[in-house]
Amino acid sequence: MGEDTTGGDDVTGGLSTREEGETRLPEVLDADYVYDALVHPRRRYLCYALLTDAAETLPDLATQVAAWEHDVTEPDVTDEQHERVYVSLYHAHVPKLVANGVVEFDKERETVTPGQNAGRVLRALESMGASLDDDRGAHARSNMDDERE
Amino acid sequence: MTKGSSNDEFDDPGIVGEPDWVQIAQRRYDPDGGQELATEIVFAIASAEGISPTELESPLYERVDAAALEATLFSPTVGDDDAGQDSVTTTFRYGTYLVKVRSDGQIQVYEPTGDNT
Fold first, then answer.
1. Which of A128, A81, A28, A132 is nearest to A89 (CA)?
2. pLDDT digits (tens, 9 = 90+) for A69-120
3. Is B39 on the interface with A (CB under 8 A)?
4. HSE toward the beta carbon, residue A12, CA cutoff 13 A
């Protein structure tokens, strides 16, 4: 990602009106829901967390995503950063992924688990590889045991 | 919340600015501020409700796709044009609230006055 500044107009075949301004992704992402799941950085982080088993509950996912976004370790995520990511995941991104069958959300236990359409999304994410840089992957690996709450 | 009155004439969220609604919270969304519109809307509603944003239970997504709204209202061709573009407003209901999002970044939360006079 990132080099995609050639102004390619319609890489995704008509999806460009959906969320303009967000990163455009290669056409390997042929299904709408795959594109949708990965086009937004926060949803991409969330899917990446699922892929790596970095976190399972929404509060933990929010910590993980905030740590990646701010490029800090999980204990260094501030309450405010956590709150903002949590709110955005809860009110926007998780429901969208649920609607697309990419994740399932248990409201009682606040767990986020892969849904029926997760396979293609996670495979696409895996094949993209470079979309998450090594630093962030390292954070993911080194902080899996951090219990925040 | 039930309305005590049979006067449902203003139930259509498209009709705003009527005396039936009173603004109780306001927040400014900065498209360049690095925050998501969805988050700002939730913060505005939470402030209207007097609770922490994390306590707001009903997912905003069930009422509005804020990411799509963000792209529509705040893409460069809408808000940033120097063509003297008037502000565009989107209105939706959230619980008993009426929420207005303007393309100048203003988020306003209204509640029914409950005054049937």
1. A81
2. 999 999 999 999 999 999 999 999 999 999 999 999 999 999 999 999 999 9
3. yes
4. 22
Contact A19 B43 (CB under 8 A): no
ipTM of the complex: 0.77
d(CA A121, CA A119): 5
To test the contact with chain B by mutation, choose from A58, A69, A85, A88 the residue with the greatest count of B C-beta atoms within 10 A, namely A88
Q: Which residue has tokens 């950063």?
A: A81
How far is B75 from B106, CA to CA, in rounded Å? 15
Query: In angstroms, rounded to a whole number, what is the distance separating the alpha carbons of residues A49 and A44?
Result: 9
Q: What is the C-alpha end-to-end distance of chain B, expressed in Å?
A: 18
